[in-house]
Amino acid sequence: MARIRGYIASSLDDYIADQDGSLDWLFKYDGMDLGEHDYRLFAESIRTVVMGRDTYDFIAAQPAPWAYEGKRVIVVTSRPISSPAGELETRDNVEALIDELRALNDGDVWMLGGGRLQSAFLQRGALDDIEIYVMPEIIGGGTPLFPSTGLCLSPKLAEAKPLDKGCVYMRYVFS
Predict the structure, then answer these.
(1) pLDDT tens for residues 8-39?
(2) Distance (Å, rounded) from C-alpha 90 to C-alpha 78?
(3) CATH code at 136?
(4) CA distance 169 to 30
(5) Rounded-to-integer distance, Cα 113 and Cα 56, Å
(6) Are strands 108-112 and 46-52 parallel, antiparallel or unpaired?
């Protein structure tokens, strides 16, 4: 059974993108030493990437080549994607998708991007853990790490430690 995992960076004031939807505040940390928590190591354990439509549209608009070659990519959307940036599948039913993902046995699943889809999975008890990298930046507003949904949870802190350039790593487990 696949584990469904989150891996995301946040500003100190709890935003994942600024008010313009930009990640420039985060990109200035590219190349920092995350040691055993490096994205490339995390990505090796991932076979399936799941993202919402807003995250897909953001990634597809970037000039960089498609970063998920060789991985199963699923975009949760009700709107068709006319010219995909890479090989992908779409789904519009979160409950059915969760059942499908849990039946996988070829690697873990990464909930990539924004908090709305992660919150939808949390509301259904389907996110196993999340790694959050809090960056020493206050950006004053934007897209929150978790949108306000009224959901109340008490995840267990499994690990926390300071990393390079003032970043703090935390991994929470949901039971």
Answers:
(1) 999 999 999 999 999 999 999 998 989 999 98
(2) 8
(3) 3.40.430.10
(4) 15
(5) 9
(6) parallel
CA distance 94 to 75: 11
Distance CA 6, CA 126 (A): 11
Please name the residue that has the structure tokens 């039946």: 103
DSSP 114-141: -HHHHHHHHHTT---EEEEEEES----S
How many structural domains compose the chain? 1
Residues 6+ apart with CB under 8 A from 90: 74, 75, 76, 77, 80, 81
> Domain limits at 42?
4-173
pTM of the predicted protein model: 0.92
